[in-house]
Amino acid sequence: MRDRPRVVVTGLGCLSPVGADVPTTWEAMLSGRSGIGQITQFDSADLPVGIAGEVRDFDAEARVGRKESRRMSRFSQFAVAASEEALAASDLSLDAENRDRIGVLIASGVGGLKEIEDAAQVLAASGHRRISPFVVPMMIGDMAAGNVAIRYDLRGPNFGLVSACASGAHAIGEAAEIIRRGDADIMLAGGSEAAITPLSVASFIAARALSESTRPAVEVSRPFDTARDGFVIAEGAAVLVLESEEHALARGADILAEVAGYGASADAFHITAPEPQGRGVVASMRKALDRAHIAPGDVAYINAHGTSTQLNDSAEAAAIHRVFGEHADRVPVSSIKSMTGHLLGAAGALESLACVMALRSKTAPPTINLTDPDPECALNHLTEASGIGAGMALNNSFGFGGHNATLVFGDYATGGA
Question: How far is CA 22 from CA 12, 153, 189, 324, 391, in A?
Answer without folding.
Answer: 7, 24, 15, 31, 22
